[in-house]
Design a protein that fits this description.
The chain is mostly helical. It contains nine helices and no strands. Bound molecules: iron/sulfur cluster (SF4) (2 copies).
Amino acid sequence: MAIKADPNFKKEISMMPGGENLLQCYLCGTCTAGCPVSEIDDTYSPRTIMRLALIGSRKELLSSPEIWKCSQCHVCVAHCPQDARPADVIRVLRNLAVKEGYITPETACRFDRVEEEIRSMRISMIKRTIEAEFAETEEE
Ligand code: SF4
Ligand code: SF4
């Protein structure tokens, strides 16, 4: 059965904070080319997310795990030639997914905590490595 498109979806997104520039996307794929998540997961593509938002695949997008794979690093925002801000569009889609009951607020919070834990692990690893390197230099 074909999935029914919602012709108002792109307008709705573009009226929300973060989604204002969705319509500027011309689907060039630069965001996917530079995305660190796409690099390790070839099923993930911010360009595809932007395309589905533009064609009104509301249910398909809001029920998809893809919108939760993004790490919100904003590399795509820096690279996008159209300033379409895919990371922010994804944030809008996540908020809609919670609001419309595709995912519970508790699960969304759990995903946010994963990002916090990854950032904190990264800083700890960097600190430990630098401390070890300084300790070695002092011993020499
Ligand atoms: S969001 Fe930007 S970089 Fe990504 S496909 Fe659209 S225009 Fe290209
Ligand atoms: S913000 Fe998300 S979509 Fe954009 S580059 Fe980072 S992981 Fe990829």
